[in-house]
Specification:
Blueprint (H helix, E strand, L loop, with lengths): L4 H4 L22 E4 L2 E5 L12 E7 L5 E4 L9 E6 L9 E5 L5 E8 L3 E10 L1 E6 L6 E4 L6 E10 L5 E4 L1 E2 L4 E8 L5 E3 L3 E5 L4 E8 L3 E8 L12 E6 L4 E2 L4 E4 L2 E9 L8 E7 L5 E4 L9 E6 L5 E8 L5 E7 L6 E8 L1 E7 L7 H5 L10 E4 H6 L2 E9 L12 E2 L5 E3 L1 E3 L5 E3 L3 E3 L5 E8 L3 E7 L13 E7 L1
Parallel strand pairs: 1-8, 10-19, 21-28, 30-39
Antiparallel strand pairs: 2-6, 2-13, 3-5, 3-7, 4-6, 7-8, 9-11, 11-12, 11-17, 14-16, 14-18, 15-17, 18-19, 20-22, 22-26, 22-32, 23-25, 23-27, 24-26, 27-28, 29-31, 31-37, 33-36, 34-38, 35-37, 38-39
Length: about 475
């Protein structure tokens, strides 16, 4: 028996034959069977069958309510005979078929020299359930989306009429069901009528979307099956695909960062043109490339079959929030929000990189000493590199995740000084080129001692509260 929990995660009432046998009795399992359905069972022996085997007779105590079958696809009867081979402790599998949807019925197992055992069958109502993709009762897709799978499952119902356990259609019978599509113009079914043969429990079909709208897919059940309290319908919602854009970014004044367009459906055979528009071009520009000056409106071409493309956002202001909107034929428009912030220039020992994000966010980075050590001799062989970075400032702090490149059309030249030039000097000035986020300079150690390398704040930029100086410790 297949376990319905693998399909829908519902509570499942199922039987696992016991392997713990009493030395004096046969073991007949209790089980639950749905009307017009069947469930497998196995009889346990108190000990291994003798050389000649054992003949078990299994008899329904009320054939009007339950029948028995030796084969998954055969009609049941009031009584069957099972042969247990030499040394086996369990009977072959057999099937109990339910003919009613309430009450209980017993069956009796007898064997020469082993007495008899009785098993109780709880009779339950049954249904055919319909499940959408990922076994859910509803799903979303787009007019150009691929066909989505629907699953039909024969199952028992619990006392609250909810789907409980997957079971097979009773052997020797067949059940015909059909799916009603409330709005076929929204999408079509690959198959809408199904015949379950005895021993089957599953059927599959597909829903192919066609246009915007919602359609309810519901099963038309035959006599003897009940409409369940859950999984009686699947709702298909067909919506225009969306466009994802850069959202929640922060950009420093005169800096830029990359954004990405992501399509809900891939571009068609001719590609797709997505138009991006800034709500305030005096504060935020948009560009198709990192080396191109932005404008208030741009057109991005997404290649055929592609689902994404990049663009660049360039800030002209140090405060406020600006939006930009993405539009394209056949897609829902999307708006992204960008926060504008002050920008600054920071310096660091090149091997360290910019300040650690976690330290800055925990307010430990502001006063953190990120010094470096060298010697006069080592400095001659291995020059010490310092890096100057452009970054946006978050609450007056700078960290590695805030580093951003200068926007196109802006370059920055900064001066660096050594607090004690007799200990060491630094090459200055340093220019960060347009479109770049940093540049390198060299520190030269001259004599043992300590000095501090400090970067000046260029015009148009704000001074960070951290990472504007680097302590240097020089040994012989």
């Amino acid at each position: 028996m297949r376990n319905l929990s693998k399909l829908i995660g519902a509570a499942v009432l199922s039987f696992t034959p016991s392997t713990m046998f009493c030395a004096t009795a046969l073991k007949a399992p209790d089980l639950t069977v749905g009307r017009n359905l069947q469930m497998n069972a196995i009889i346990g022996l108190p000990e291994g069958a003798p050389p000649e085997g054992v003949q078990l007779t299994v008899t329904s105590d009320d054939p009007r309510k339950a029948l028995l079958s030796q084969s998954v696809d055969k009609a049941g009867s009031a009584s069957i005979t099972l042969t247990v081979k030499k040394g086996f402790h369990r009977s072959p599998e057999f099937f109990v078929q339910g003919l009613a949807d309430n009450g209980t019925v017993t069956y009796t197992v007898t064997a020469p020299g082993m007495g008899e055992a009785k098993g109780t069958v709880t009779l339950a109502p049954s249904t055919i359930a319909i499940l959408g993709p990922s076994k859910q009762p509803s799903f979303r897709t787009t007019p150009k989306g691929v066909a989505r799978k629907l699953t039909l499952v024969a199952a028992t119902l619990d006392s609250s009429m909810k789907v409980s356990a997957e079971q097979q259609i009773a052997g020797g019978s067949s059940v015909t069901v059909s799916i009603d599509n409330s709005h076929p113009e929204v999408g079509s079914l690959g198959q809408s009528k199904f015949t379950f043969k005895g021993g089957e429990s599953l059927a599959l079909t597909t829903f192919t979307p066609a246009r915007e709208g919602t359609s309810t897919l519901s099963l038309v059940l035959p006599d003897g099956f009940r409409t369940p309290a859950n999984y009686s319908t699947v709702v298909a919602s067909v919506q225009m695909p969306g466009i994802a854009v850069a959202e929640g970014l922060t950009i420093g004044k005169d800096l830029q960062t990359r954004g990405v367009i992501a399509l809900g459906d891939p571009a068609g055979p001719e590609g797709l043109v997505v138009t991006l528009t800034s709500s305030d071009p005096s504060k935020l520009l948009l560009s198709t490339a990192s080396d191109k000056l932005g404008s208030g409106m741009i057109a991005i071409h997404v290649p055929p079959g592609a689902s994404s493309a990049e663009y660049y956002l360039q800030s002209l202001s140090d405060s406020g929030t600006v939006t930009h909107e993405a539009t394209a034929p056949g897609y829902r428009a999307r708006v992204g929000h960008t926060t504008l912030a002050p920008s600054g220039v920071i310096v660091a020992f090149a091997s360290y990189g910019p300040p650690d994000e976690a330290a800055v966010r925990n307010r430990r980075g502001e006063g953190q000493e990120r010094s470096f050590y060298t010697s006069v001799e080592n400095s001659k062989k291995n020059p010490v590199h310092l890096a100057v970075w452009s970054a946006y400032l978050d609450g007056g702090l700078a960290a590695d995740f805030t580093v951003q490149a200068l926007r196109v059309g802006v370059s920055v030249t900064v001066n660096l000084t050594s607090s004690d030039p007799t200990v060491g000097t630094v090459e200055s000035p340093v220019t960060i080129a347009s479109g770049s986020s940093h540049n390198m300079t060299l520190f030269t150690a001259l004599s043992p001692g300590e000095t501090v390398i400090t970067v000046d704040t260029p015009a148009g930029f704000s001074r960070p509260r951290n990472a504007v100086s680097v302590p240097a410790h020089v040994a012989k």
